[in-house]
Amino acid sequence: MRNGRLIVQILSTVAIVALSVLLAGCRQAGSGGEAGGLRGTITVSGAWALYPMMVRWGEEFKALHPGVEFDISAGGAGKGMADALAGAVDIGMVSRDVHEDEIKQGAFWVTVVSDAVVPTINAHNPHLALIQRRGLDRAAFEAIWTGKARTWGEVLGDESIKDEIHAFTRSDACGAAETWAAYLGGYRQEDLQGIAVYGDPGVAEAVSKDPLGIGFNNLNFAYDANTRQPVAGLAIAPIDVNGNGSLEAEENFYANKGTLMAAIADGRYPSPPARGLHLVTKGKPTGLTLTFIRWVLTDGQAFAEETGYVPLTQAQAQAELQKLE
Q1: % of the chain exceeding 70 in pLDDT
Q2: Predicted structure pTM score
Q3: Which domains are seen in the chain, by residue range?
């Protein structure tokens, strides 16, 4: 009898273990098979430039994997890099080149989409028609943000125009300012003069309230997400790329977000201020973070254009995927 009870106990234990394994497998499979059973939270911080895209990617990825949560915050590329290197977040959003000292600290990155920084002016600037007809060349923008030009007349070549230029820059360490400074002639963010304002929305708001204001914004904060027209109160200060004092047809692509995105994609808009946007991790990503980044570089690219970003080409995406191997 004692042996019989022992056999019964062993068989019961085996059955319980088998049932537990089966249930665990069911939980792992979830509603969408093995991939649909992903669980965990992905924390992200950094560049305002990537924030709208990351929010969209988070929504779409969660729709596929309900067990995955996202904690996404903007605060500038500098914060994203610092947070990633400190292990405070899983992913940092960075909208500038990754510096050598950051690479030495373990920064690993992949480029996920492209966009651009664009110069923005007040929609009621008294010289708007002239600015939009002629554009401003790189030297004019450099003069504005280095303090060499103080009046709109100086950059428009008309001494009778005495209106002051009110230049705005960023107070937070950010990729937009770093990229704009590089375009002006190899400067750094700290070289830019002007009224320092926090964040992309802050610059857009400041310029929209000042008829003599000029600033720079990431593409998705210069154009309205719904209308794809410049944000209310803002106009784009077109870049006279060839510097001949006239905005020619091939340089005039600012009417809406779509026409500017096409110019970024085919290289008509200069780079910088066009640039790639990156996701940064401390060392190569693993686990859930790796799975998400792989999805961003594959299926996630389908959401880039409609969210206001230039997707990677197939060759570019493949090159970034190879970095993860």
Answers
A1: 89
A2: 0.85
A3: 37-115+275-323 (3.40.190.10), 116-274 (3.40.190.10)
